[in-house]
Amino acid sequence: MTAPRVLVTRRWPADAEAAMAAAFDVTFNEGDVAMSPQALAEALRSFDAVAPTVSDRLTADLFEGATAKIVSNYGVGYTNIDTEAAKKAGITVTNTPGVLTDCTADLAMALMLSAARRLGEGERELRAGKWTGWRPTHMIGVKPTGATLGVIGFGRIGQAVARRAHHGFAMKVIYFDAYPIPAEAAAAVGAEQRASVEDVLREADFVTLHTTGGAENRHLINAERLAIMKPGAVLVNTARGECVDEAALAQALKDGPIAAAGLDVFEEEPKVNPALMAMENAVLAPHLGSATHSTRVAMGMTALENLKAFFDGREPPNRVA
Ligand code: DGY
C-alpha cells in the first residue's frame, strides 16, 4: 500500500520531521513562510492529510471541494480551523494537547514576573546607556509573592500556572471557568472558584488568561472589564490574541487602573497594535509559549501519532472534530 501523502505547512524540529518522513510520503513547506489561503485550499484538495499550525487559517471556504481526510493541527489551540466546515467536508481534525502545558505555563509566569518587575523597561534603559545607578526609587514594580492570582480558564494550562504561583510564589489563587472543574483539581493547586470573570477581575492583583480563542471569547477582556481591575493589577495573556481588546488594553496601560501587561499572543499576528508597542509597561513576546526544543518535538510526535492512528484505522487520540 502506498504511504498517505501529508503536507506539513511549516518546518518542524529535525527529529519530528525525520519521524514524519519515516511514516508518510511527506512534503514540508521548504521555504517555511506562511502559505497563502489559495495554497492551503489546494493542499486540502491534493494531499491525504494536512498538518497546519496556529498561523494557518483554515476558514470554511478552504474546505469547499477538499478531499483530504484529516487535518492534524500542530498545536493545542485549534480556533485557526473552522471545525464545523471540516466536519461537513468529512474531514477529521486533531490537535496536540498536554505536551505544551508546562512550557506555556512557564512562559505565563515569565511574562507575569517580567511585567510586574519591569524587566523589559529596565533592560531597554540599561542597553540605551541611560541607567544612572542604583537608587531607592528606581523602577519600582509590583510584588507577586503573596499576591492574589486570578486565572480565567482553568484547564490544563491554567492549573499548571496556578500550581507554580501557589507553590512557588505563595500566591492566593482564584479562578473562573465557564465549564465545571473537579473540586480535587482546584484543591490540588490551592485554587478557589469565583462565580464570574468580573469577580476574578475585581479581586486579583494578577490576572492570567487560559481560555480558548475564537468568537466565543473574542474581547473577553474589554474596556468595561479592564476598568474594574484593581489599581496596579497586571494582565497576562498566553491564550489567544482575540481574547483581549488591544486598543482598550493600550488605553488602560496608559490611564490605569492596571500597571502592566505581559502578552505572548496578539489579535492580528504577526502584526502588533502600535498603541501597545508604544507602552513601556507592556512586555511583548512573539508567541513563544511552546517554544522549547523538547516541546516542539513532542508536538510534532503527537501530530504524527494522530495521523498514524487515523491511517491505521484507529481512533486518533486527540480528535477535536
Ligand atoms: C498552541 O499550541 O495552541 C500554541 O498557541 C502554539 O504552540
From TrEMBL:
Residues 109-289 form the D-isomer specific 2-hydroxyacid dehydrogenase NAD-binding domain. Residues 7-320 form the D-isomer specific 2-hydroxyacid dehydrogenase catalytic domain. The keyword Oxidoreductase applies. Pfam families: 2-Hacid_dh, 2-Hacid_dh_C. Keywords: NAD, Oxidoreductase. GO terms for molecular function: glyoxylate reductase (NADPH) activity; hydroxypyruvate reductase [NAD(P)H] activity; NAD binding. InterPro entries: D-isomer_2-hydroxyacid_DH, D-isomer_2_OHA_DH_cat_dom, D-isomer_DH_CS1, D-isomer_DH_NAD-bd, NAD(P)-bd_dom_sf. PROSITE patterns: D_2_HYDROXYACID_DH_1. GO terms for cellular component: cytosol. The keyword RNA-binding does not apply. Belongs to the D-isomer specific 2-hydroxyacid dehydrogenase family. PANTHER family: 2-HYDROXYACID DEHYDROGENASE-RELATED, GLYOXYLATE_HYDROXYPYRUVATE REDUCTASE B. This is Lactate dehydrogenase. It comes from Rubrimonas cliftonensis. The lineage of its organism: Bacteria, Pseudomonadati, Pseudomonadota, Alphaproteobacteria, Rhodobacterales.
